[in-house]
Design a protein that fits this description.
Layout: E1 3-5, H1 7-16, E2 32-33, E3 41-50, H2 55-67, H3 78-82, E4 93-103, E5 111-112, H4 116-121, E6 129-135, E7 140-141, H5 144-147, E8 149-155, E9 162-169, H6 176-179, H7 202-220, E10 227-228, E11 259-260, E12 267-268, E13 270-271, E14 277-278, E15 283-285, E16 290-292
Parallel strand pairs: 3-4, 3-6, 5-7, 6-9
Antiparallel strand pairs: 1-8, 2-10, 8-9, 11-12, 13-14, 15-16
Keywords: Apoplast, Secreted, Signal
Organism: Theobroma cacao (Cacao)
Subcellular location: Secreted, Extracellular space, Apoplast
């Protein structure tokens, strides 16, 4: 069963329950390890582009994935953010971009149901792979605005081996308040001004946040028996347990202290390859049982 990343629900919870360290001593956040396999070692990432994306949009996303496993970028870097996954059992998860397929003619239409996602993911098969389905802004996916993205697994052939997949949609014209915050005003909670997106594309920069979340969740809980808290069919995972936190000093409605690009006013916290800048969410650190930010 796919694991749901639900930003909208979290924002509503934050609005109702504004926590204060001055009033309540927060308990350590613990994600239990359920003794299942994690995705470690060399992992191939394949892309299924469903609908129309510009070459620039595709390059922003591919550069992000390539940035996660390189040490050739300036700190704070996307790769330093990703290194927190090494603290989970089994060592490093090294991502490498594999194949890509463009489905610009919408072969399943512009309204996708949940069963369509594993079907699209099966375009590529393999062990230790993550097949990423990215849907364009004019594609509606079942439950889109309540989850922003999801991850799951599919069988490779007829045997017991399973491959993993991720779906993330471009929310620019559908529900940016749920899926592209803090680059768009939130639909719930404090109405703070939106931040300037570091790549100049609210939809794609929002996709980066959701893709980062789901990549970390996938390698640390690929088959619903890795690291998580709560029920297996609706878990809090490595990054979804830290939703809404991007920098130090964050609180509900405020993403935290971030870096700002002087020339554009864009907010970011991680450098990538080819001069890219990204905004990446906090990740649960199993060594400290806290949500770790890189700035």
């Amino acid at each position: 069963m796919a694991s749901i990343y639900c930003l909208a629900t979290f924002l509503l919870f934050c609005f109702i329950h504004l926590s204060s360290s001055e009033l309540v001593q927060e308990q350590p956040l613990v994600l239990k390890y359920h003794n299942g396999p994690l995705l470690k070692g060399k992992i191939t990432v394949n892309f299924i582009w469903y609908g129309k994306f510009t070459p620039i949009q595709r390059s922003i996303i591919v550069d992000f994935v390539n940035s996660l496993s390189t040490d050739k970028t300036t700190l704070p870097s996307s790769s330093s953010w990703w290194k927190t996954t090494e603290k989970y059992k089994g060592g490093a998860s090294n991502l490498g971009v594999g194949k890509q397929i463009l489905l610009e003619n919408y072969p399943l239409g512009k309204i996708l149901k949940n069963p369509h996602l594993p079907a699209l993911a099966s375009k590529f098969n393999g062990v230790n792979t993550i097949n990423i389905i990215l849907t364009a802004k004019d594609v509606s996916v079942e439950g889109f605005c309540m989850r922003c993205g999801t991850h799951g697994s599919t069988r490779v052939g007829r045997g017991p081996i399973r491959g993993t997949y991720i779906w993330v949609g471009n929310s620019e014209t559908q529900c940016p308040g749920q899926c592209a915050w803090p680059f768009h005003q939130p639909i719930y909670g404090p109405q703070t001004p939106p931040l300037v997106a570091p790549n100049g594309d609210v939809g794609v920069d929002g996709m980066i946040i959701n893709l980062a979340t789901l990549l970390a969740n996938t390698v640390t809980n690929p088959f619903n028996n890795g690291y998580f808290q709560g029920p297996a069919n609706a878990p809090l995972e490595a990054v979804s347990a830290c939703t809404g936190i991007f920098g130090s000093g964050s609180y509900p409605g405020y993403p935290g202290n971030l870096l700002v690009e002087k020339s554009t006013g864009a907010s970011y916290n991680a450098n990538g390859i080819n001069g890219r800048k990204y905004l990446l969410p906090a990740m649960w650190d199993p060594q400290t049982s806290t949500c770790k930010t890189i700035v």
